[in-house]
Amino acid sequence: MESASSTKNKKITDDQLKELIDKAMGMREKAYCPYSKFRVGAALLTHNNRFYTGCNVENASYGLTVCAERVAIYSAVAGGDTEISAMAVCCDIKGKFQGPCGACRQVLVEFGEDMTFFCVKPDGTYQEMVVRDLMPMAFTPSSLAEAAD
Ligand SMILES: O=c1ccn([C@H]2C[C@H](O)[C@@H](CO)O2)c(=O)[nH]1
Ligand SMILES: [Zn+2]
C-alpha cells in the first residue's frame, strides 16, 4: 500500500469549510473529558468529499487519552479513506488560537504535509494553517526511504 502523504492535497470549497467548522464545533459537545474538562472536537474532509469526526476520549488511566484529531483520522482510515484535504479542530479556548499536540502533529504529517488545518475558537472564528508548518523537519514516510544500508 502506498503511504497516504504521497498524494497531493485538494482544495476545499467555502461550503465545505463551513460544514467542516460546524461539525468540529458540534463534536466538541461529544468530548469525554471528565478529568481535564477540556473539550475538543475535530472534523476532516477527504478527497472523495466524505466527512469524518472525532472528539477527545479520556480514561481514568490518564495516559490512555486519545485526542480528537487522532480519533477523526483513525475513523477515516477505518472507513477506507486515507486522503485527507482538511481538518478543523475546535477546543475550549478563550484566548489565542492553540495548535494540536505533538503526537497529533506526527499523525497528521503521515496523512499529508500539505493538508489544511483550521484552528477554530468556540465563537467560530478560525486560523488557517498548513500541516507542514506545524511540523518542521518532520519524520515522514519518505524519511524511511533515506535509511542507511
Ligand atoms: O490538540 C489537542 C490537545 C488536547 N486534546 C485533549 C486531550 C485531553 O483530553 C485534553 C487536555 O489535554 O484535550 C485534544 O483532543 N487535542
Ligand atoms: Zn493530540
UniProtKB/TrEMBL annotation:
CDD domains xref list: cytidine_deaminase
Residues annotated for substrate binding in this entry: N56, V57, E58, N59, A60, S61, Y62
InterPro entries per UniProt: APOBEC/CMP_deaminase_Zn-bd, CMP_dCMP_dom, Cyt/Deoxycyt_deaminase, Cyt_deam_tetra, Cytidine_deaminase-like
Pfam families, A to Z: dCMP_cyt_deam_1
EC number of this enzyme: 3.5.4.5
CMP/dCMP-type deaminase domain sequence ranges: 15-142
Residues binding Zn(2+): C67, C101, C104
Keywords assigned: Hydrolase, Metal-binding, Zinc
Example of a GO cellular component annotation carried by this entry: cytosol
Cofactor: Zn(2+)
Reactions it catalyzes: cytidine + H2O + H(+) = uridine + NH4(+); 2'-deoxycytidine + H2O + H(+) = 2'-deoxyuridine + NH4(+)
Biological processes per GO annotation: nucleobase-containing small molecule metabolic process; pyrimidine-containing compound metabolic process
Superkingdom to which the source organism belongs: Eukaryota
Active site feature: E69
GO terms assigned for molecular function: cytidine deaminase activity; identical protein binding; zinc ion binding
Top-level class of the enzyme under EC nomenclature: hydrolase
Function: This enzyme scavenges exogenous and endogenous cytidine and 2'-deoxycytidine for UMP synthesis.
NCBIfam families reported in the protein's UniProt record: cyt_deam_tetra (TIGR01354), PRK05578.1 (NF004064)
Family: Belongs to the cytidine and deoxycytidylate deaminase family.
Full protein name: Cytidine deaminase
Organism: Bugula neritina
